[in-house]
Write a structure and sequence with these properties.
Length: 446
């Protein structure tokens, strides 16, 4: 699958950067400015394509800069591309409308002139044929007109060239002005995205469960997901998450996968603050697809050393409720067996107890409800992370994007995540630590 999509992704990336060069650098009046613009855009293309690869091959502070710059350009370049494409689309529509309006009067004038031409032709038919002397004069006049037209070729060509030069200059000015407008839209948009990604909100979400006993009313869960330590997410970012989480004084803390983007030696110092997480019943973790890329077994051992319980297709008692944690859906595809195994986690459980499923991706929610799951907690979608990617993220995750969903007797909460992947920005999808408060429903009668 990777080798199938890679050529298309590479062509799309190159095409996007060529378009940015054509719109931003090529209209510049000075040759050195055009060269500098082309060099900058070419460098950004290399950073986006290979910055992360270089950092993974040589994980060091110096190579990490390449990765960070590439990620930052992803955001700015994306919104430059979108704003310029929108401007060009509007300009194309205006140009087409003007051409259409210009052709309509011309067509009407041609139709109006047709009867007069026909009348003149009729009058010519009834007139007498020219005499020989008149014919000779006509020939001489035609030759004179031809010589005059030949003499007029040079001035006419000069006029056409001047007209084209004026058109090219006006077109260049339009491209420069619209390019500045596109940058004027992209820069503050990207800046707002950078600001949003650096801050994590804490929404309170009340979830009513039919089986929840009255004694557990108000049971609180802090749900973290998709931190993606590495890249721009450093230890200070993780420490702020820990401080915000502990301030909630939760009964339990869940981390729904995609904690890291790299191996243990490279990122151990970044995730070290997680050892300071505090809750009454502890911290629980399930692997996401990025743990699979980064090494499941080493991270499982390292997280255990930080006091975090990693659930691998198993069930634990959570103050009278069943907490089931399963591997990510992609685990088996990458050779990690058995992969997602809800059957193992539900084996021999008491169906009268509340069952909470912690799994990285929201997919499979309906099937989980049919198996007796009361509440599924997931992440993975990032809430789309960058507008206008939300519809794509929703479609890729069985219609789930962010927030609380219900199916039958079961409910699903999808977190937008705490960090970000790739571009260090969030637009239309604010980062969050979800504070879930469990309450008995009116149906429970408990």
């Amino acid at each position: 699958m990777f080798f199938f999509f890679f050529p298309f992704a590479a062509l799309a990336l190159i095409g996007a950067h060529f378009y940015l060069y054509w719109r931003l650098a090529r209209p510049l009046p000075r040759r050195w400015a055009r060269g500098a613009g082309a060099a900058f855009i070419g460098l950004m293309l290399l950073l986006v394509s290979f910055g992360t690869v270089v950092y993974r091959l040589v994980p060091a502070a110096s190579t990490r800069v390449f990765q960070q710059l590439g990620y930052a350009w992803m955001t700015l370049g994306l919104y430059c591309l979108l704003s310029l494409a929108a401007i060009d689309l509007v300009a194309l529509c205006v140009f087409g409308a003007r051409r259409l309006m210009a052709r309509r009067p011309k067509a009407k004038s041609v139709e109006a002139a047709a009867p007069s031409v026909a009348a003149s032709a009729s009058e010519g038919d009834v007139s007498q044929a020219p005499t020989p002397a008149q014919g000779a004069a006509t020939v001489e006049t035609a030759e004179g007109d031809a010589r005059a037209s030949e003499n007029a070729v040079l001035p006419g060509a000069t006029a056409a060239k001047a007209e084209n030069a004026v058109f090219d200059e006006s077109r260049r000015r339009f491209l420069m002005a619209s390019g500045l407008l596109g940058l004027g839209v992209a820069l503050p948009t990207a800046g707002a995205g950078f600001w949003s990604a650096a801050r994590c909100r804490v929404p309170r979400v009340e979830v009513e469960l039919d089986k929840l006993p009255a004694r557990l009313s108000g049971f609180s869960i802090a749900l973290l997901s998709d931190i993606h330590a590495g890249g721009w997410v450093d230890s200070d970012f993780v420490r702020r998450l820990v401080t915000q989480t502990n301030a909630l004084k939760p009964d339990a803390i869940f981390i729904a996968g995609d904690l890291v983007d790299g191996d243990v030696p490279s990122l151990a110092h970044i995730v070290a603050p997680l050892a300071e997480l505090q809750s009454r019943l502890g911290t629980f973790f399930v692997i996401g697809n990025h743990e699979i890329y980064s090494g499941v077994e080493p991270w499982q051992a390292h997280l255990a050393s930080l006091g975090i319980r990693v659930l691998r297709n198993e069930r634990v008692d959570l103050d009278g409720m069943d907490l089931c944690g399963v591997d990510d859906w992609t685990a088996a595809r990458h050779g990690i067996r058995p992969g997602y195994d809800l059957d193992a986690a539900l084996s021999r459980r008491n169906a009268e107890r509340v069952a909470i499923l912690l799994t990285h991706q929201p997919r499979g929610f309906r099937q989980a409800v049919e198996r007796g799951i009361d509440l599924q907690l997931s992440g993975h979608t990032h809430g789309g992370q960058l507008f206008p990617l939300q519809p794509i993220a929703r479609r890729a995750n069985e219609g789930y994007l962010a927030g609380l969903y219900r199916h039958g007797a079961g409910q699903l909460y999808v977190s937008r995540g705490c960090g970000y992947w790739g571009p260090p920005a969030r637009i239309g999808a604010p980062a969050e630590i979800a504070h879930l408060v469990l309450l008995p429903s009116e149906k429970s009668g408990r």
